[in-house]
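[Automated response] Your request has been received and processed.

Submitted sequence:
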Amino acid sequence: MNSFSLDQDPYRDVIVEKVFVTPEMAADMASRNYEHNRDIIKTNLLDIQRMMKNGTFVLSPDALVFDQNGILLNGNHRVTSVIETGLGQWFIVMRNVSHDIGAITDTGKSRTMSDRLNFRGISISRKQCSVIRHALCDISSPTVGTMQYSKNYQDEFVGQQFLRFKDYFDMVASSNYTGPKFNPFFLGAGLKIYAQMRNKEQKGHSFIHGMNAVDRAKHWIEITCLVHPDSNPYNSAYDAAASRIYLAKKEKRETEAGAGYWNDAPSLRKSINAAFKFMNGEPIVRNLIAITSDPFTPLSKLPATALDFSDDEQD
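Generated structure:
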């Protein structure tokens, strides 16, 4: 058990008080919301406003939280509800709180890993967060990346890996590979292709297809997600693995009524199998299987590719 003396109290500067927040006060609080806070969820907002209007909103132990600079860390929905209803409410208010509290605040609506990472100052979308976790996961497990990496204590590792390969995600965004057509498994496999090819290129290795890491990753994404590649012409000798996995995804959707989504562990394993063959330009001589041994070098063991990130930052 930890024992602290009074002068060791890590919360000695935190102020906790009960405050009646008027609409004017709420507007000032909302103007100091932190930069990467998650978007307002309309249904949550309407539920809170309904309680305020019918008089059932009560004092909650879930505090409005402000950091040492007066930035609002927790309570965005409630503050906005006070503004929009014009009805002041009583709240517990905590001030001078560290950003580390982001992992445990907002008990009314649990934060996803992307929410928590944004809270820490890493701007990452929910889809990007899914993609990096699928790319990091152990495919011998019967679960996918979003299940293997979901705990608060894993946030720092996932966030650092995202930053190490942020250039890949910037390329995905600039190429508009962001809509629902772009499956997170295929984007995650594309990251594995990109990162391993970059590492091999730096060591002087060349590939039979003659493409560099950026072009090959984009080619993979376009074939698997769009069927018809735009950036480079399709070559049946080297690109068959990508078209084969696209057809496997399509067949799964058409034959497995109600359960044909490309989002389970066997689908991820097949995606990784196809991606490795595609990276090397290998021909397809048999059906793609759901491998359980990952042929790629783990991302965490590869050098960072983002120019503004140094692996020394992790030490």
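Summary generated for your ticket: Strands lie at 15-21, 64-66, 72-74, 89-95. The mean pLDDT is 90.
If you did not submit this request, please reply to this message.
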